[in-house]
Amino acid sequence: MSNKLDLSVVIPVYNEEEDLKILYDKLAGILPSLKMEYEVIFVNDGSVDKSWNVISEVAKKDKNMKGINLRRNCGQTIAIAAGVDCAKGDIIITMDADLQNSPNDIPKLIKKINEGYDVVSGWRKNRRDPFITKRLPSLIANKIISKLANIPIHDLGCTLKAYRKEVLSDLKLYGEMHRLLAVYAAWMGAKMAEVEVEHSPRIHGQTKYGLSRTFKVILDLITANFLIRYATKPIYVFGFIGIFLFLIGFLVSVFVLIRALLLHGAWVSPMIFIMTICIITGVQFILMGLLSEISIRTYHESQDKAPYVILTKLNID
Ligand code: UDP
Ligand code: MG
C-alpha cells in the first residue's frame, strides 16, 4: 500500500451525485496524458444522496480512483485533511467536486510546481458566483489577508491548488482553514505562485455556504494572523494589552485619589468605574497571556513540534 505516486488529486464531496460521473470522465480524459503515476481521492463528507454509490462504482472500474467515506458531515476542510492524510503523491492537488473548477487546469498547476514552487494557487479571475454573497466578501477578505500575511495571491479561497507534499504534511487543518492553507504554507516559508484558472457556474446541486462563511473566515484569519506573528510569544500580545489597560486604570486611580483626598472631590464618579474595569481587565489579560504561554509550550512539546522549519542541512544527519 505504501508505494509512492507522483500525483494525488483530493476532492471533497458533499451531495454532488449529479456531478461526480461527469467529473470522473473529465479527470480520466486528462490525467493519463500527464504521464505521471496518479491517484484521485474522493472524500465523501457524509453525503445524504448517492454520491458514495457513484464513487464506489468509479473506484471499481478504475483503480486510480479511490474513495474515503466519512461517517458524518465534517466540513470541507476536514474532508480535505482526510484525503491529504491518505495521499501518496509527491504533488497534491485539491479541487471541488461541483465542476466549478476544471480538471483542464491541472497540467498548468503541475507545470508551475515543476518550475520550483511549493504551492501554486488557482486564481478564478473570471469568477462565476453571485456578487453579494460570494465575490464581494471574498474580494475584501483576500485583500486583507494577502496584505496581513504579505503574500501576493489574489484568490485564497480557490480550492484548486497544488502543493508539494512536504508543505502539507506538517500542517493540521481545522475550521475553515483550507482557505488559509496558502497563508500557513507561506508562513512556513513555502515558495508561492499563482496561475489563472477557469471557473464555471454551479449547474447541479446547491452551494453549501452562505454569507455566514465570511465570519468564519474572518475568525480564522484572526487566528492565522495571531499564530503567524505571535505563536511563540503570546504573552507579548496579551501582556501588552494588559499593561496598557492596567496603566490607564492606575492613572485614573491616582486621579481619583488626588481629587478625593487633596481637592475634596467625589469618590464615586464615572472615573471609578473606568478605573475598576481597566485594572481588572488589565490583570486578566496578563493572566491570559501566561495561560497561553503554557498552552503554546504544551503545543510544541507534546507534538515534538519545533518552533522553526529547517529547509536543508549540511553535513548534519
Ligand atoms: N463540501 C464538503 N463538505 C461540506 C461542504 C462542501 O465536502 O460540508 C465540498 C462540496 O461538495 C464541493 C466543495 O466542498 O465539492 C465546495 O463546496 P461549494 O461548491 O458548496 O462551495 P462554493 O463553491 O459555493 O464556495
Ligand atoms: Mg462550488
Which key terms come to mind for this protein?
single chain; 317 residues; alpha/beta; Spore Coat Polysaccharide Biosynthesis Protein SpsA, Chain A; 7-stranded mixed β-sheet; 10 helices; 49% helix; 13% strand; binds uridine-5'-diphosphate; binds magnesium ion
Helix and strand topology:
Layout: E1 5-13, H1 17-30, E2 38-44, H2 51-61, E3 65-69, H3 76-86, E4 89-94, H4 106-114, E5 119-123, H5 131-148, E6 161-164, H6 165-169, H7 181-187, E7 192-196, H8 212-230, H9 234-262, H10 270-302
Parallel strand pairs: 1-2, 1-4, 2-3, 5-7
Antiparallel strand pairs: 4-6, 5-6
Helix pairs in contact: 1-2, 5-8, 9-10
The protein binds uridine-5'-diphosphate (UDP) and magnesium ion (MG).
